[in-house]
Specification:
- This protein is mainly alpha-helical.
- 55% of the residues lie in helices and 8% in strands.
- The chain folds into two domains: 59 residues; 38 residues, no CATH class.
- It has two helices and two strands.
- The chain has a two-stranded antiparallel sheet.
- Strand 1 and strand 2 form a beta hairpin.
Length: 118
């Protein structure tokens, strides 16, 4: 059967609904692109927030190291003492003469969790 006969046998040759299908396909593609842009913006915002937090933490640690170096330069290494953990009896910090006498430095009986503040 020739092709022209098949086309003649079709009941409707109206193409009015084609525009609706094309517009719907366009809207689907536009929605997908908009969703990808939104996801990218959210990830970018999250990365910027984490970067700012990391920069703040880095600045804080740099300041602490600078303060420690300044203290050592002014007072010398012999001025450093190790603090004992919190004294449970009177809720005060105990100061040891040296790190070797600290409870956490004792190899036979270390107790790092005793009196630690929360």
């Amino acid at each position: 059967m020739p092709r022209s006969r098949l086309l003649k046998r079709l009941p409707c040759r109206d193409e009015a609904g084609v525009a609706l299908i094309v517009v719907m396909q366009f809207m689907l593609v536009a929605s997908a692109i908009a969703a990808l842009v939104a996801v990218g913006a959210v990830h970018s915002l999250r990365n910027a927030t984490q970067d700012a937090a990391g920069t703040g933490a880095q600045s804080t640690t740099d300041a602490g190291v600078a303060e420690a170096i300044n203290y050592i330069r002014e007072n010398g290494l012999l001025a450093l003492t190790c603090a004992e953990p919190l004294n449970p009896a009177d809720n005060s910090w105990q100061s040891a003469a040296g790190c070797a006498s600290s409870s956490w430095a004792n190899p036979t009986s270390p107790s790092p969790s005793v009196g630690v503040r929360s």
